[in-house]
Amino acid sequence: MSATTDPLRLDEDLQARLRRAARAVVLSGAGVSRESGLDTFRGAGGLWENQRPEDLATPEAFYRAPGQVWRWYAWRYARAAAAAPNPAHLALVRWESLFPSFLLVTQNVDDLHQRAGSRRLVALHGTVAAAVCDACGRRRAMAEAVAASPDEPPACGAAGCGGRFRPAVVWFGENLPAAALAQAAEAAASCDLLVSVGTSSLVYPAAGLIETALRRGARVIEVNPEPTPFSPRVHLRLAAPAGEALPALTEAIERCRSMPG
Ligand code: BJW
Ligand code: ZN
After folding, report:
1. Distance 221 CA to ligand 2 centre (A)
2. What separation in Å is there between the alpha carbon of 130 and the centre of ligand 2?
3. For residue 135, what is the DSSP state?
4. Which of 112, 114, 237, 248 is deepest in the core (most CB within 10 A)?
């Protein structure tokens, strides 16, 4: 591929690295699902434009106003369930056969990557499609829990358990699922290529994966219409919506990797 036929203008070094890369990681955030009609958190029109995250996305908020938090997640779940994967989600499914080792690390709770067909995936912040008992950890489908109790979190009801169901997501101040985080951290520490897409890169430890990949010397590509704190340090910034940039990047990588040598 020459620079003149490459609409993404990948420089020679990046083309060579993309051709040789054996281990790739994608870190995705809410912006990937924007073109599926779901809201991001931060910025204009985001879920938190008129609400403080600490009023909704913390354990303290849930214990202070359980009904309000439950209804917000019931609404978020209904929106996610009604949404469909977009070309960005679909392009990422192809990455599983592009690289010998590939991991999609998502911060998203909408399950759209899974519904698109991605299998080599870890979800760092849980899912809105499930509810979990805050005392015994029993899980059930969010759809069923909301149907049984639309306005207040339902009681667990298991013998001897006085707990109640909450959304199976990770709130501020809570630990991420240990196995998922360990797998993501190991992949970032050993990758040749990391692509961050649709994330403001403000929330840790997820954003720390970008730092890990940069320190390792991996090539890092950022797909985001807006800059992030990592923008000055990445090797390529695609300032475009994910639904346009990811299919184009996928095709460019497929072309690179089908070339001999
Ligand atoms: C497009 C687009 C298009 C638009 N195409 N792009 C180190 C330093 C400082 C603080 C901490 C630290 N380590 C830990 C912390 C504390 C905290 C934290 O990170 N705070 C910072 C905010 C300051 N982290 C935690 O508490 C984490 N737990 C933890 O660390 O446990 C250990 C511990 C315990 C106690 C004390 C200390 C440590 C847990 C974090 C959990 C995050 N949970 C949420 C809610 C999940 C449930 C729900 O959905 O309601 O996860 S918060 C929210 O932010 C959600 C997201 O997954 C996450 C990231 O957001 P994301 O995806 O980046 O979305 P946005 O909206 O921010 O950005 C969207 C981007 O898309 C924008 O840039 C747009 O430009 C772009 N975009 N359209 C492509 N079409
Ligand atoms: Zn229980």
Report:
1. 43
2. 14
3. T
4. 112
